[in-house]
Amino acid sequence: MSFARADNQSVTVYTLASGRGRSLPSYADNTTQLAFSPDDRTLLSNGSSTPRLWNLQTWKRLPSVLPSNTGIDVRGVAWQGTNILSATGVGAMTLTPQGKQLTVYALPQPSITAAAFSRDTHLLALAADDGWISLYDLNANQLRWRVDASGVTSLQFSQTGTTLVSGDATSEQLRFWSVKTGQALGPSVVGARDIAGFTKRDAAVVMGGRVVPLAPLLRRHGEVFLGELPGQVYRSSNSETAQLTPGGNSVCETTLVFQSGGAGLRTSSWQLAGLERNNFSFSLPEERRLGAVSADCRVLAVAASELERGQTPKPLAVEVYHPATGKKLQTWPTLGRVKALAVSPDGQQVAYLEEGSTQLVLGNVNSGQRKLWTLPEVVQDLESFPLVFRADGRALLIGIGTTAGTSFTVLNVP
After folding, report:
1. Above 50 in pLDDT, residue 1?
2. What is the average per-residue pLDDT within 194-202?
3. CB count, 10 Å around CB of 54?
4. Are the CB atoms for 193 and 171 separated by under 8 Å?
5. Alpha-carbon distance 31 to 85, whole Å?
6. What is the rounded distance in angstroms from the CA atom of residue 88 to the CA atom of residue 107?
7. Is 177 exposed, middle or buried (0-12, 13-18, 19+ CB in 10 A)?
8. Are strands 132-137 and 142-148 parallel, antiparallel or unpaired?
9. What is the reported pLDDT for 310?
């Protein structure tokens, strides 16, 4: 009987009867796990680049089962019968000892870039910087599908829940996906970074200041430019974000306004039926660049700061306004820069996280009371991440994990 030990990145196998050990040919690869095969003839280890194997009859290392020096960080290994189970930061897979891939298991993405709940709250779409969109069934607690789509910065479900739209802010390109299958639908639309929403029964999609009938759009293929699409033009839109209100009659936009002292924020509401008809437009002064609005455009939350000498922003507060009247509803002082901010669909709750803090704040707009959630210390190392309320406002998605191996958390809102 024998046992193996990894010490200073060398691997030694000891025979229990004699107490003698024999070192295996190895190299520094951050070994933290070892496992004998069921027949005790092969030793398996994890590492930063690939699972490693040794033949304990010949005392020679076997060829790598995956390409080495990939930096995928093999965090865990185990035997699944005579096959190898390898878990990494980008997924898990089952392999033969010869390196043939048998099964791939999807794991939560390493870093979330965009997230969206379906209207019925059953589905969650996530995009990550590893270049994938994933659709999770929250009722079944399982992954439905994954598709290759890099650079995604926005996601949105259609009203009927049959279509998912992803946007890329860098290339200003939109893509449409079947919620049922994950297959791409229609063309890639160039000239818009996200959509404002879908009109009643998904008759049209509102994007980039245009109202475009959906069915004819999805019959097209290839790449099309937004300006070439048929439909009404309601406004020349350069907004940072735009969303269709739940009634489907107006669009709520937030836009950066550049002035001599810096950038402020403007929130506007526009009627779709009247095209250029403006419901209201509310502008805030400089250094209010991060903002979020409720689904009906009636509550606006912003992270306020001021410029000190040397043009360094000094955090001030999270401010909550009624943009139609300009009335300030709440002010919550902050010590650090606010790097994540969200407003619940009904405008009753504001969630935010300050830089350097591991406590997420949930503020009640009516009472002004705040509750704190403690998050992992990893949040201090993240520049930004999504905060997304579920459609019913009773749950909040955070684009980080609170347990090992996860990259998002859904919290119930009291």
Report:
1. no
2. 90
3. 22
4. no
5. 16
6. 9
7. buried
8. antiparallel
9. 58
β-strand partners of 359? 374
Integer Cα distance of 360 and 370 in angstroms: 10
User: Strand 223-225 vs strand 184-190: parallel, antiparallel, or unpaired?
Assistant: parallel
Query: If we measure between CA atoms, which residue out of 203, 199, 201, 196 comes closest to residue 174?
Result: 196
The mean pLDDT of 263-278, rounded to a whole number, is 80
CA distance 21 to 7: 12
The encoded tokens of residue 140 equal: 């079944």
- CA–CA distance from 43 to each of 3, 7, 140, 325 (Å)? 10, 15, 37, 70
The predicted model scores a pTM of 0.68
> 317: which 2 tokens?
């507060």
Q: Torsion angle of alpha carbons 64, 65, 67, 73, nearest 10°?
A: -100
Phi, psi of 200 (to 5 degrees): -55, 135
Q: For 137-161, how does the pLDDT look when each residue is reduced to its tens digit (9 = 90+)?
A: 887 778 899 999 988 989 999 999 9
pLDDT digits (tens, 9 = 90+) for 346-370: 999 999 999 888 889 999 999 999 9
Q: In whole angstroms, how large is the CA radius of gyration of the chain? A: 26
Q: Quick one: 46 exposed, middle or buried, by C-beta within 10 A (0-12, 13-18, 19+)?
A: buried
Task: Please say whether the beta carbons of 281 and 311 come within 8 A.
Answer: no
pLDDT in tens, 52-75: 888 888 988 888 777 654 555 676
Distance from C-alpha of 316 to C-alpha of 331, rounded to nearest angstrom: 10
Q: Output the pLDDT for position 112.
A: 75
